[in-house]
Amino acid sequence: MTAIETFTGDARPYSGGDPYADYRTADFPFTHLADLADRRLGAGVIAANDEFFAQRENLLLPGRPVFDPERFGHKGKIMDGWETRRRRGASAGHPWPAGDDHDWAMIRLGTPGVVRGIVVDTAHFRGNHPQAVSVEGTAVDGSPSPGDLLGDDVKWTTLVPRTPVGGHAANGFAVTAEQRVTHLRLNQHPDGGIARLRVYGEVVPDLAWLTALGTFDVVALENGGRVLDASDLFYSPAANTIRPGRSQKMDDGWETRRRRDHGHDWITYRLVAQSRIRALEIDTAYLKGNAAGWASVSVQDCGEGGEGGDGAWREILPRTRLQPDTNHRFVLPAPAVGTHARVDIHPDGGISRLRLFGTLTDRGRGELEARRQELGG
Known about the structure:
Helix content: under 10%
Keywords: Hydrolase, Purine metabolism
EC number: 3.5.3.4
Family: Belongs to the allantoicase family.
Radius of gyration: 23 Å
Number of helices: 3
Largest sheet: 8 strands, antiparallel
Pathway: Nitrogen metabolism; (S)-allantoin degradation; (S)-ureidoglycolate from allantoate (aminidohydrolase route): step 1/1
Order of helices and strands: EEEEEEEHEEEEEHEEEEEEEEEH
Protein name: Probable allantoicase
Number of strands: 21
Distance between the termini: 27 Å
């Protein structure tokens, strides 16, 4: 695996101008994966032992943290993150925190998954960040309370061991634990502030739930679909097209730059598993003067793991005129079986959502069950 750049120590005090001018960050190899802690998937910070200076919910806010040097409240500086009070020792003779003292926040992931990488972002926490962090994970189905998760019968696995981190920096960690996770415990040693938490990984869908639904969106991010590649990512991520709900603003979809040639743009997807597709939607919500002019959809049926099979793309929706700011629905004349999908837009522009409604095939159901068993049932 590619070495990940690490940061330690305080950042320089803020002295005016762009607060991100001296922000320390790096390219992390796992950030193309879904953020399992995205609130749009249903993630939440369900508990914390302390949030005296800044509330725990800030950890999962979308977008990068903001900094207002003049903003203070009755408790002190108002920070866009989660910040705890300063820990103290047990006595005047030993005023320092004990070696194992730490603060924690508990996170419910938006969807169960295998974690591949974590970013603990300390943006704007320059001298008040934790000295080190650690992250643990567990898998508990249903809707357990914080008390349930803190019970002696719940087994937590270390995903990130206690590791020094830097202030005003994106601290990235690769995770190698091959297991299904539903909840995380973020620990900061001994105290301090963290601005954002991002948890990148692969969705592991609930087969029982999908089976009970019968027909569902087989490319949706929350069900295990994912974007593989796209021709253009100039304005917004292609993964927006498979996020939950309708787009709420223009940049909540996928938009490409203006083409000056006779080409076209496209996105390829991996479905949750082999599926039988019966209907689809292409939504151009909030794309009014920049919606794609036409779109077509194709499927491909590959063997297990994306290998084998005939590998041929078969068009299930021919090139069709799209209207701006409109949800377009199509019922297929016959079901289409596939493991992958592709949307082509002509000549450029964007779409906000793609929905592929179908059911798992017997093979697809078997693959999901086998994967769940590999990850510990």
